[in-house]
Amino acid sequence: MTTVPAHTGMTVDPELADMMNAVLASYRDGKPPQKNVSLDDGLWSSLDRLGLVRLTGRPDDGGSGAGWAEAAELMSAAVRHAVRVPLAEHDLLACWVLDTVGLTVDGALRTICVVDEHGTATAVPWAISAERVAVVWSDGDGHRVSDVDSATLRITAGTNMIGEPRDVVEADIAALASSGTMVDTAVVEQLRLRSALVRAVQVCAALDVILDMTIEHTSSRVQFGRSLSKFQAIQHMVADIAAEAALARAATEAALNAAITSDWASDKMGFLVAVARSCTGHAASVAVRNAHQAFGAIGTTIEHRLHEYTRAALAWRSEYGSVQHWDDVVTQAALHAGGPGLWQLIAD
């Protein structure tokens, strides 16, 4: 069991964490890796009955009233068991925006996208499976959002590296204008940061599993009369995975801590999320390379579960901003702070 540490400002009830883990472990037990992912309606219904689908929603609006600590634990549990389900996209992103602007949120499965001036958004998570899509667009002076029946949108199916739906959504902005609700610019910016932090949390969970699997494999696999873990080159590979995973988690927990304790109001929120995404992105490169080297050919087979985590880490690190993008954000923040302000930027 992995729980969010106490220094994040909130602890996760151990019984709740165990329940999340048990439900997702039970669902995945015995199921082989999937090439393409489709939403399991039975699983979604089960999670809904347990109050996990709208974990952070307001209790008076059908939610469970939990926070980001619990949401991070739920996301991590799903990653640990390689269960692909749009919990974050539905709860932390789409329903949060609609709730923030005062729109009613019913029990429909939702995702969210920000469309361009032509009404198009690419790589939209789970749009093909969603019943409704929260469509955000710029109206020139600001932004608007409309809660749209997915049947009225043009959705072209696509997938990411691990087969999760990443679809093209096309909306008629002119038709939506009359029903659109104004969205504060700060909400749109927070949506961008929330989306990025979701992926950082997921990558960290994948890195933890990659590390555990590599340790188990190298400890049990015997070559030339001794376990792989006795070879110095293998020890260095595993140590590098552990170091990178620890750095990525520390950076992600720092951003999560700021989000929870300040309710996303910290003036360093953007920098902290950028650091988390930069660290997780670079950590994924090291962990994936070293793990596959340690496993050898067996780690590349479809039957072995290593790829469910290595490919996931690589896919998620490039969503909601590339590694290069977040590296640039960190660099620009450091340059803006200058010599006198750099220590305060990274230490406070």
TrEMBL record:
Matching entries from Pfam families are given as:
Acyl-CoA_dh_1 (PF00441)
Any one GO molecular-function label of the UniProt entry: acyl-CoA dehydrogenase activity
Q: Which UniProt keywords apply?
A: FAD, Flavoprotein, Oxidoreductase
Q: Where is the Acyl-CoA dehydrogenase/oxidase C-terminal domain?
A: 198-318
Q: Which InterPro entries match?
A: AcylCo_DH-like_C, AcylCo_DH/oxidase_C, AcylCoA_DH/ox_N_sf
Q: Can you name this protein?
A: Acyl-CoA dehydrogenase domain-containing protein
- Taxonomic lineage: Bacteria, Bacillati, Actinomycetota, Actinomycetes, Mycobacteriales
